């Protein structure tokens, strides 16, 4: 969209910046954006060394953003940007994050069916009742993006992470268009990586600050079961004079005892590390264009 379209969208003058993240594209995106910056000072460019994925791209954009509100939208232009105005109005109702909902989705069944399955499972386990967790069109208060720590493919679970941190989540139906540019990167590998990230999010939102509640309980249950099995084998030997060696149940008891100790130790170490762990950037920036010195400093560049 051009500047006239942006002003028409909001119907009033406002200050804004447009941060474009080039995720290692092999076309002439960088040179095209570079040519536009001279006449469009609100444009910013962050270019990655290679493709690091959508989560890394969002993280870079969040790091650079300086406005009170942050809007994300995919470059494929499938989500209609004219929903942004209504989404900001929704924020003014007291919400911190408004997620788009592709209610009438213009995608093939190979994408819509897995998406429905993903959204249904996420709703079931997270308790969040929105329909479309992974819509690229979202509007945030700055405080939300400042506190989000994303890695892997966790962009799919941003509403879950945000609600876990105490932010209020809402959803708004947005117009969805058939894809005209580029090709989808969705495949079987994305499905399985999403499943693993889903398990990570479940652990993070429930046990990140209390890992002992997960590992400790599992370890305690394993240790007690192993202890009972070992006690049974011992009493069998003492009272009924049954042989102890070469009994599978004995090895099971020993295994459960050792596993219980290991799980408990893992929980204890997790408790010690949970408040002191930190993650580095999951991406490498090749160059930036038109960032302020404060923005460029976050990426260790001088722009």
Tell me about this structure:
The longest helix has 30 residues, at 211-240. This protein is α/β, with parallel strands linked by helices. The chain has a four-stranded mixed β-sheet. It has a three-stranded mixed β-sheet with strand order 1-2-7, sandwiched between helices. It has two domains: 3-208 and 284-297, Spore Coat Polysaccharide Biosynthesis Protein SpsA, Chain A, CATH 3.90.550.10; 211-273. Helices cover 49% and strands 12% of the residues. The radius of gyration is 25 Å and the shape is elongated.
Keyphrases for this structure?
alpha/beta, 11 helices, three-stranded mixed sheet, 7 strands, 303 residues
| Distance, first to last CA | 25 Å
Report the C-alpha radius of gyration, rounded. 25 Å
Using the 3D structure, state the CATH architecture of the largest domain.
Answer: Alpha-Beta Complex
CATH topology of the largest domain: Spore Coat Polysaccharide Biosynthesis Protein SpsA, Chain A
Number of helices: 11
Shape: elongated
Report the helical percentage: 40-55%
Q: Count the beta strands.
A: 7
Order of strands across the main sheet: 3-5-4-6
What is the average of the pLDDT values?
Answer: 84
Q: Could you say how many structural domains there are in total?
A: 2
- The SS-based structural class is alpha/beta
